[in-house]
Structure formats: C-alpha cells, structure tokens
C-alpha cells in the first residue's frame, strides 16, 4: 500500500480507467469530476422512459485480448454484456447505390468491398498489412511519443521488423495509399473513406495518417469488432467506478477544479476545487493525471505555474478539434424498416455526413415496441460559440428541422412517428462535459499529430500527466483506455514500480 496521493481530473473513460488502475495498485486516489455523473462523452441521460447515449454509441476492445478485456480482467471485474455489431455500420453514399455493409466476417467484408469497389483490393490488401502490423505493435504496449530512456526502452520492446517497414509510411495519408495502389480515381471509394475516417480520426482521407486510418478502417472485422452494450454506454463507466471504489478510491462528483499550483519546497501539487455549494476545497497530491482536453490546462495553471512558455504556446497552437450536433429521438420501432441496421452512416448533399445509432429491441434503452435514434454530425465550434440567445435558438431550430427532414426522408417517417425530439449543440456538450467550446473527440489524426509526432502524456512539469483522446493512440473508448494504461505505467515507473497487465494470445 502506497501513501502517495494522486488526483485524477475528469471522470470520462480515460480518467476512470487510470483511477481504477492506480487504486488497484494501492495508491490513494481522488477522482474529481465536475458533472453529477461519470462517463463524459460516453455517458447517458434519461428522458422519461428513454435512455440516450450522450456521444459514443459503440465500443471496441471487448474481444479476447482487446484493451477492455485486458483491463477488466486485471481489475477483476466482469465484462459488460454486449453484442457484436454485424454489420458494424451500413454506409449510404447518397448516390442511389446500395449501402456498403461493414460485415464482421472478414471474407464477407472482402466480398462486399470487391462488389462495391471493383479493382480496389490492392488498396485493402495494403491496409490489411498495415493493420496487422500496427495491431501487434499496440498489443505490446509501446510508449509514444518517446520523452526519456524508459519510454524508448518500452518502444524498442514493442517493435518488430514489420513495424520498421510500415514506419516508412508514417508521414503518409490514407489518400497517399490510394495513389500508391492506383485507386485514387475511384470517387465512390474516396467518399466512403472520407465518411468513415471522419468518424474516427476527425479528418478526411487526405488528412488522416495512413498508419491510423488503415487500422480503424478494419476495426469492425474479426478477430476484432465493434460492440453494442446492453443497457447503455453508462454500464462501462459504472463498472470502472465500482472497481475504483472497491479498491479504496475517493470520488468527488459535482466538484470542479479551478486552479492547479505546485509548492516549491515539497513539490506537492495544490488543487483548488469548488463543490456544488460553491465551497472551496483544497487538495494535495504528489501527482495529477489530467484526462480533460489539454487545452483546459491553460486556464487552470497560472502562467508562472511551471509550464514553460514554449509548452503553453504549443498547446495554444494545437489544431482545433470538432464539435458536434446530436439529435436524440424516440419512435415506434414498427415505423423503422424491417431488419434496420443498428448503425448507419448517410451522406446528404446539402448537409454532409450523419451517423445514426438505433437501439436494439432488448437493450433497455427504450420500452418494448419503441426505439431510440441518435443522429450526429461534426460541426465547427466557432459557428456556435459567439451567438446571442436569439440567434442561437434560431440556428438550433434550423439544424433540428434539417436533421429531422433527412431522417423522415431516409426512413419514410411522418412527424407523428416521433415520440421524442431534442437537439444538442457544442454549447450543450460544453455544459455537460466541461470540454472547452464543446469539442468532441481529440486531435485530428493527421500525420503531424499521430503516434511519435503527437502530444506526449508527459508534461514539462514533473508529476503532471495527460491521458485521453488527444493522447496516443487517439479517441474512442478503446483508444482512451489504452492511453490511460500507458500513463499509469509511466507514472508508476517514475516511482520505481512496474504495471504488468497480461496480454492474451
């Protein structure tokens, strides 16, 4: 049992995972979350008898050897009840052609893409080689970016000859892979890639790192896969919370961090926190794990608080992540097409990409005979940040009507089909998550921001650590959980200890 105190800031999946691991290892851990519930962008809310996932609606990494499987096994908690998505998604390109189904069976997916994109198999074969090389690399728990000798040693342990070969592609984009394989003239393929990559990298094919894009494009296929949780996404957070509390962690909900400073003599961190009643609480810690967007640090640490001017300027210059508008609706299941896929992506010429998630019959998100439908689209947060109340309401109503009209047309619905309708904007996400401007996801996975070229979990201030969707390997519950495990390994190594989480073959 360690007597060192650690504060984890932010109760999303990254913060929860790092807090649960540290508590499991015997550290005194306090998790501080400004909202009244955990989960962040993977949380839920209720409207009457309906349960809506706030943002994330799919989970990766539940399969044997996947990151959630590894972590939950180590924490000695059961995996959540979940169903593999097959197809993982049905993609409508908006050109009148039949949808592209991302089947779980690799052979079925191969047949699908050969029919949909004739002559593209050389591109997919290259992606497959990159995917398998990257996956074996990630499973060996590398540290990226490298900032000291120990980080380098962990990276070296994870490398294999295949990784050195794919490393030559580190500065290329997915669009570059299309050119290399002679598939760049296939406009349908490019639109499909743009739609899918925007979901996972916040960038189109022309700006998504090849090493990242090749991996996420095949996440829906066995032996990996995408999963739908029984109950809601909140189940994932609840299980991690239970593990954290079981192992002695202290949870402060409805508490907002307002200032982080460091004592010169003791090197301990002083953390000012305001509770629900606006009372000021002062906490001390030897280390801080910061799971909020790194941009939030600048408002919490004074200019003379230990972060160099160069580091602060670097954070200020980080590319701006996207925001999102999300429509939350409920309707009679009988109004939906028979055998309607659970996850659909459509392209509308006037609106752009919309990602749709529909609840399953028995997943407890809606009463029997009803269904929840969540439709989301990325937007520029600046379009929403400076609007007055009247302009904001007007803009929100316009977007709501546009999405409803698209959904009504897509599923042949009537206005009377809907039992519930509401729209969230970047402002809504900012209120819910506390993320600046309501940004969702992390940094776009551009070659200049991915892997060895990304933002490090180590900050210039000793004892201050970062994890979450802006840290390697990126967004999604699987990605942020991987970043949480990485930062805990680094933190423990700085104290002369080692975290060993078994790998399943």
Provide structural commentary.
The chain has about 500 residues and is α/β, with parallel strands linked by helices. The chain contains 16 helices and 20 strands. α4 (about 120-140) crosses α9. The model has no long low-confidence stretch (mean pLDDT about 95).
The CATH architecture name of the largest domain reads: 3-Layer(bba) Sandwich
> How far apart are the termini?
31 Å
At the fold tier of CATH, the topology name of the largest domain is FAD/NAD(P)-binding domain
Number of strands: 20
CATH class of the largest domain: Alpha Beta
Could you tell me the radius of gyration in angstroms? 22 Å
How much of the sequence lies in strands comes to 15-25%
Question: Which features characterize this protein?
Answer:
alpha/beta, 505 residues, five-stranded parallel β-sheet, FAD/NAD(P)-binding domain, globular, seven-stranded mixed β-sheet, 16 helices, 3 domains
């Amino acid at each position: 049992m360690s007597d060192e105190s650690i504060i984890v800031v932010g109760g999303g999946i990254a913060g929860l995972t790092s807090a649960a691991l540290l508590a499991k290892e015997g550290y005194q851990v306090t998790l501080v979350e400004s909202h009244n519930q955990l989960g962040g962008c993977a949380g839920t809310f209720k409207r009457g008898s309906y349960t809506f996932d706030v943002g994330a609606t799919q989970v990766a990494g539940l399969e044997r050897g996947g990151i959630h499987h590894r972590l939950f096994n180590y924490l000695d908690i059961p995996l959540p009840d979940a169903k593999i998505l097959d197809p993982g998604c049905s993609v409508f390109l908006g050109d009148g052609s039949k949808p592209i189904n991302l089947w779980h069976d690799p052979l079925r997916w191969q047949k699908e893409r050969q029919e949909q994109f004739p002559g593209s198999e050389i591109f997919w074969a290259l992606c497959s080689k990159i995917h398998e090389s990257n996956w074996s690399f990630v499973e060996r728990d590398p540290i990226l970016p490298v900032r000291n000798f120990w980080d380098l040693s962990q990276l070296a342990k994870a490398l294999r000859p295949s990784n050195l070969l794919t490393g030559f592609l580190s500065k290329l984009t997915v669009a570059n892979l299309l050119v290399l394989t002679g598939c760049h003239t296939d406009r349908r393929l490019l639109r499909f890639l743009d739609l899918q990559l925007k979901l996972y990298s916040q960038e189109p094919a022309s700006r998504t790192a090849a090493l990242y894009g090749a991996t996420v494009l095949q996440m829906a296929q066995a032996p990996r896969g995408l999963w739908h949780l029984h109950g809601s996404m909140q189940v994932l957070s609840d299980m991690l919370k239970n593990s954290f509390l079981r192992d002695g962690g202290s949870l402060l909900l409805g508490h907002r961090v307002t200032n982080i400073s460091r004592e010169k003599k003791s090197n301990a961190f002083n953390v000012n926190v305001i509770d629900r009643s606006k009372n000021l609480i002062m906490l001390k810690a030897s280390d801080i794990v910061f799971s909020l967007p790194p941009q939030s640090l600048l408002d919490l640490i004074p200019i003379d608080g230990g972060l160099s001017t160069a580091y602060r300027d670097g954070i200020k210059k980080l590319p701006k992540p996207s925001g999102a508008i999300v429509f939350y609706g409920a309707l009679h299941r009988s109004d939906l097409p028979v055998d309607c896929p659970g996850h659909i992506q459509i392209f509308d010429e006037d609106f752009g990409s919309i990602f749709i998630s529909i609840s399953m019959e028995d997943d407890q998100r809606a009463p029997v005979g009803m269904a929840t439908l969540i439709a989301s689209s990325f937007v520029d947060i600046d379009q929403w940040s400076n609007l007055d109340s009247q302009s904001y309401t007007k803009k929100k109503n316009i977007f709501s009507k546009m999405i409803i009209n698209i959904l009504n047309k897509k599923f042949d619905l009537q206005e009377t089909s809907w039992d519930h309708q509401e729209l969230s904007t970047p402002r809504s996400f900012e209120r819910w998550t506390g993320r600046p401007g309501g940004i969702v996801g992390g940094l776009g996975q551009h070659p200049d921001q991915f892997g060895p070229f990304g933002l490090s979990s180590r900050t210039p201030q000793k004892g201050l650590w970062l994890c979450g969707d802006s840290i390697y390997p990126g967004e999604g519950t699987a990605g942020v959980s991987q970043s949480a495990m990485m930062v805990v390994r680094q933190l423990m190594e700085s104290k002369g200890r080692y975290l060993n989480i078994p790998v399943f073959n």
